[in-house]
Amino acid sequence: MADVLPECLIHKILSFLSFTEAAEMSILSKTWLQAWLTLPNLKFTVNHKNQNMKKMDNIMKRYRDGKIPIEKFELSDYSYSRRVFPLFDKWLDVALQNGVKDLVFGVPSYTSYPLPISKILAAKSLRELVLRGCNLTRVSLSSGVPNCHSLRKLSLSLVILDENMLQTLLNSCPFIVSFIFDKCYGLEKIELLNLQKIKSVLIWKARNQLVKIQAPTLEYLSYFTDPGESPMLDIIDAPKLVSLVYKVDQIPDTFVDANFQWSCHPRELILESTTETIACFMGLLMYMKSLSHSTSHESKPLHSQLKEVKAYKFNRGNRRWHLVELRSGKMAMSTLSERDKFCFSLDW
After folding, report:
1. Among 153, 167, 178, 313, who pairs with 128 as Cys (CB 3.0-4.6 Å)?
2. Are 20 and 41 spatial neighbours (Cβ–Cβ below 8 Å)?
3. How far is CA 195 from CA 67, 177, 230, in A?
4. Which residues share a beta bridge with 44?
């Protein structure tokens, strides 16, 4: 019965297991053994004891010699040792040569491993690149960085880099549709400009970083800061923004100017913040809605009119959204917890 399933389905089943668990399943039959030997998704974790290094190296040699396609290669380093660097170079080479599409690479941010970013971006098959904890300030850009037109998702978490490296990466990947920038350090400005295809952006900014976004194709934006941090967000141009998830303690001045013109017009805004900030924002929405109803169409630009707004409060007990009455000032604060999560449905 174990041989009834096609190899592609067995690959799918094995992809939900750890590499060790998948290896144990190979004893079921020759079909399962062959499926395990050609598993397209590889996930390696190097620990401080350097266990299984020889086994992992033999696996990569087999994939290299047999030219076995690799769909996803995930490598995490917890070894705290420079001795593994030559193996990382060799394994990354094999993955890139074998047409890897999704590459996930994580190391401690203090490591001195020189990530071969130019070689990675030169891979024509690469569609997703996830980097965690890498120090890109150690990477030389003297030879330039090739364009990676195939890349669709770029994720940087706890990465150390400067503004020049960030712009170099973004310029070399002009067709990404998803970008994650999670608590990366070493730069004061995060500028997302001229990304031709970008649809989704998540930014969790580090301390005192200014974020500027000009993305005419952007539809989904998630923006987080640590408690007490100033948001320092400037959305210059995002006319297609559908959803904005906003976890901050303050509303930036650039959101609404003196004439109550918004820099963006999302249809959905999820706000997680302090009581004071949510109450202030509710009052602002109510005032903008009243302006829309009291001002003639001829005297007020169409894009500034907030025609309708609904507020939904997230109940952490049953984990559901509940429609609530829109209030402002003390009336709003009396119904709020110390920190709440609201979803506002906006009709412009």
Report:
1. 153
2. no
3. 35, 9, 25
4. 75
Question: d(Cα 164, Cα 167) in Å, to the nearest integer?
Answer: 5
Answer yes or no: pTM beyond 0.90: no
pLDDT tens, the chain, 348 aa long: 456 666 667 666 666 666 666 666 666 666 666 666 778 889 898 887 766 788 889 999 999 999 999 999 999 998 878 889 999 999 999 999 999 999 999 998 778 888 999 999 999 999 999 999 999 988 877 677 889 999 999 999 999 999 999 999 999 999 999 999 999 999 999 999 888 899 999 999 988 899 999 999 999 999 999 887 888 888 878 889 999 999 988 877 666 665 556 778 899 999 999 888 888 888 888 888 887 666 544 444 444 578 899 999 998 889 999 998 887 666 565 666 678 899 999 998
Q: Which amino acid is at 177?
A: V
- Half-sphere exposure of residue 122, counting CA atoms within 13 Å on the CB side? 11
Q: Are 191 and 208 in contact (CB under 8 A)?
A: no
CA 163 to chain centre: 18
Report d(CA 152, CA 126) in Å as an integer: 8
Burial of residue 140 (number of CB atoms within 10 Å: 0-12, 13-18, 19+): exposed
Nearest to 118 by CA among 108, 133, 129: 129
Task: Classify 104 as helix, strand or coil.
Answer: strand
CA 124 remoteness from chain centre: 22
